[in-house]
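Take a specimen:
=====
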Amino acid sequence: MRRMVELSLVLCLAGCTGVSPGTGTSATSQALAASGPVGASIAEAATEAGVPAELLMAIAIEEQGVHLPSMRLSPDGQINIAGRLELRHGRLDTLAMGARLLGVTEAELQADTDLGTRAGALVVAELGARYGAGSDLESWRPALEALAGMDDLNAHNYASRVLAILRDGGSFPAWAGETVQLAPHAEIARAETVQVARASAAAVPDYPSAIWVPTTCADKCTTGRPLGNGSVDKIVIHDTEGGWDASLSTLQNKTGVSVHYLVDADGSRVAQFRHETDTTWHAGNYFYNETSIGIEHVGFVADPGFQSGLYATSKDLVESIRSRWDVPLDRTHIVGHYQIPDPNDLGQQAAPCTDTLDACETSPNYGGAARHTDPGYHWQWCQYMESLGGTCTCNDAWSLWNCTTDGVEAWRCTDGEVQKQDCVDGCDVMPIGTDDFCHVAIESPEPDAGPGTTDPGDPDAGTGTIDPGGADAGPGPTGPGANSGQLEGGCQAATGSGRRAGGLAWLLLGSLALVACRRRARG
């Protein structure tokens, strides 16, 4: 689901501006600017546009845009977002609107988060003027509902959530360890923060706990299953590259794209857009659309890992789907978007990619027609399939022990066999090219082994102390087959949950490495 813009575009954006600065700086803007780069960018954008900085901050918190880095390799996928307010192609196309107001392209806004935030502030200012917003924060509700770009009920609830954040205030985590502060606004009436339930849903969700999101099929999906319901035997796993609100708004309204389900980043919410008996357009291959159910997961390919709550909810959703459809629990029927054959190269009905993760991710023949790469290197296929009662393959694991994102397991493939360790006291991520260290229960040593020792050369020791120089480790950090994120041409990128340095440096260096190393920049 990810096509990357040209690297040169990303590198040139630091000087791209298009609006003269506003006059004056409010006390609120000054307070936000002191909190760090995220707070500063929001405060500066608010001052420039002449809108309340605390309003922009509350929107960015609700949108989850406070977690975006300042510079991004802009994705060209199903969910296009820009800035900390996550401008998007919803019922109101705020992404196009922001680009027009700043006089730049949508791609530029997506790649430069600070530029996108400035555009978002201008969009909020224009909507405020359009709907008569005044000095009190409650008066911004109509502008917030328009900004949401959703159906009326979901837009109302979106505005209520933003006003609730404003009313309660608090401290909120942001990008690169920053914490943003928002003072409470007790003057906002509690009634303005109340979300309402749909009085009579037009349809009952197939997944009982899902939020039903009314979505037309016009230019977005196909009503029914052209090949018959019996043809459905696959589930396709996606990620969104945008937050919950932007993803819901886009998937509900953007033409040419649809999906059955959306799972939030922490697993707390699931949305359903169309019944499972309808054919949604999500795979970039119509045969796969006809024979599958699509699940989007809120997250980013470049993130170090998906949350445990997301996996748990996704597991429950898949189990629910399988109670209605005959979907085998194997990796040719539960597949990632990156495995879908490009129908233009391989034909509609070609088998999904069953090569190694890196080979499938970098192949020009998979990822559907747009060659998407989601859910990316950090999706924990072995742990996920195990939780469902199925199995992964050696192509889902690396040759070195790799910690799962939650640190409770480590997996590897050796001699064509997938092996797992249960980490009773966590899992330590080690340098690239060496095994991660899984803290496992150590059995009493054999009488001849010596006190407290375990043979590091024994592949069945199961202690997490595998000798990095062992036969499966490869020669050092760039050994062939090592779980080091080794890409073609000898480049390394932080791939796999056990191979990341963390923080801004990781994102920038890892993203640049991916672009430089791939045979072609694609998504």
About this structure: The radius of gyration is 24 Å. Confidence is low (pLDDT under 50) at residues 1-31, 449-523.
